[in-house]
Amino acid sequence: MSAPATPGIALDAVDTPALVIDLDPFERNLARLMDSIAGRDVRLRAHAKTHKCAEIARRQVAAGAAGVCCQKVSEAEAMVAGGIADVLVSNEIVGERKLARLAALARHARVGVCVDDASNVDALSAAARRADVQLDVYVEVDVGAHRCGVAPGEPARALAGHVVEAPGLRFAGLQAYQGAAQHLRSMAERREAIARAAEAVRVTRAALESAGIDCPVVTGGGSGSYPYEVDSGAWNEIQCGSYIFMDRDYARNEWGAPLPRFEHALFVLSTVMSRPAPGRAVLDAGLKASSVDSGLPQLWNREGLIYTRASDEHGVLEIAPEAQAPALGEKLLLVPGHCDPTVNLYDWYVCVRGGVVEALWPISARGAIY
């Protein structure tokens, strides 16, 4: 399949719908996060589920990240194939075939994985022994998101003890991700949620220490809350992902110190394909061009144009009476509601600087959901 653009052409000449990175704010976002944790006892393990692109992962590592997180084995395979040497699958992996692939990957990179069940620990151990590798294993603790994870304290300690005794596995620490806190709108709500999560981490670390189990890493945190995790002292690794792009849903959050303000850097470029009525325009970017699980996309820098509904291949705009109406064939930029699933719809990033295409980056883990 051909790419939607070639380097050197103008943004207006790009075929649509296309997924566009504005390189200037993207690069500022990369630097801003690293600057915000400089001198702190914490490292970044950037979350590749956001971008699914080995080129971006390499740039994050070059900027100072210790490695990346992934959510699926296939994502991890794409990152390792792209030259990333340290990958944490920050999720539970179940099933003999998946575990065999995970273990095989550990021949080529340092690979970690999360657990919340003793039988899964046994299965991981068997896979590691068959592949003659060692896997880093993190016990996932439910610190408030109520998704995966064992309860804090003694249940987490018991599972960590099981990992310590399992051949082929190395207890690497705790996964303590409060994902539900990322989109709590007020800063006070996010601060309180992370304070509760930090207490769960402290209780668990105390239980580990009382059993003589060393806990080298506590990993977690996200783009919407990580300064609170860092300030708490309970975490020494953060897993931010969306900070490089931002999206419409993150823009709804309240922001202020100590949270750095990241910029929108990811857009869907679309074309006005129909002007059927004075107050309505139709774009070629619908459900197959932008995820709507966190709301509809928003027009970028075009007051009075509102994206009101989407079908498979169409996005309908309402044009306010006082707005400058778009012309048939005009290209418009959209800020997606949720960057992660939007990325998974595309094969390429069209990377733009100053309105000119500078590069195309393949989305190497696109469709990597198994």
Secondary structural class = alpha/beta
CATH architecture of the largest domain: Alpha-Beta Barrel
The percentage of residues in β strands lies in: 25-35%
Which blocks of ≥5 consecutive residues have pLDDT under 50? none
Mean pLDDT: 97
Number of helices: 10
Main sheet specs: 9 strands, mixed
CATH-defined fold name of the largest domain: TIM Barrel
| CATH homology-level superfamily of the largest domain | Alanine racemase
- What is the ordering of alpha helices and beta strands? EHEHEHEHEHEHEHEHEHEEEEEEHEE
Helix content: 25-40%
Distance between termini? 23 Å
CATH class of the largest domain equals Alpha Beta
Radius of gyration: 22 Å
Number of extended strands: 17
Structure explained in plain terms:
It is a single chain. The strands form two sheets. Strands 1, 10, 11, 12, 13, 14, 15, 16 and 17 form a nine-stranded mixed sheet that branches. A hairpin with a 2-residue loop joins strand 16 and strand 17. With 370 residues, this protein is α/β, with parallel strands linked by helices. It has helices at residues 23-37, 54-62, 73-81, 96-105, 118-131, 154-165, 187-210, 226-232, 248-251, 339-343; strands at 18-22, 43-47, 67-70, 86-92, 110-115, 135-140, 169-175, 217-220, 237-238, 266-277, 280-283, 298-299, 305-310, 315-319, 331-335, 348-353, 356-362. It starts with 17 loop residues before the first strand and ends in an 8-residue tail after the last strand. The mean pLDDT is 97. The chain has ten helices and 17 strands. It has two domains: 11-18 and 262-362, Lyase, Ornithine Decarboxylase, Chain A, domain 1, CATH 2.40.37; 40-244, Alpha-Beta Barrel (TIM Barrel).
